[in-house]
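User: I'll paste a sequence; please echo it back and then give the predicted structure.

Assistant: Echoing your sequence first, then the prediction.
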Amino acid sequence: MALRYLVCITGASGALYSLRLMSALAARGVTLHVTASSWGARVLLEETGRPLGYWLGKLRTQGGPDGGPALITLHNSNDFSSAIASGSFRLQGTVIAPCSMGTLGALATGTCSNLIHRAGAVALKEGWPLIIVPRETPLSLISLRAMAQLKEAGAVILPASPSFYSKPRDIESLVDTVVYRVLDHLSIIDKNAFRWSREEL
């Protein structure tokens, strides 16, 4: 059985993080599950000029290994009967990227009003990797406390804070510095990731 990963897209700015992450995962031949809140889909459309279906269609046809088809399932964010709402549907990891502060707060309090909240709660209770990529600044004390709660519960808090020491040549390369860190925490090593080394400075 192919490895299965879930990418959740919320209404925070930073749709490119989710697109680059999905592309990186699809290229490895994994089975990719995706869900987006209504605002997540709206922000993605606003920031990229194309709807989520367009980007998933491109990945499905040519985003897999060696430019072949990719295995992608899109789940309605209001469908609690979806397979990803159950811990019996095993995943190798769940990533919420970008993660809005509303989603962060819901996860920290255990409130499940959509499938993204439920998927995050499932990852925490089952103990598989839950990586939260918040894209917000500055952070309120409420958000900081929510992050601390989720960290204590086992989540990885991985802010969308790109690094510059690799001298990224364009915005995609800059975004990829965060995507590579997400992959690291999913135990997926990308040979293209720039690794810090004093000898290379």
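The mean pLDDT is 95. The longest helix spans residues 171-185.
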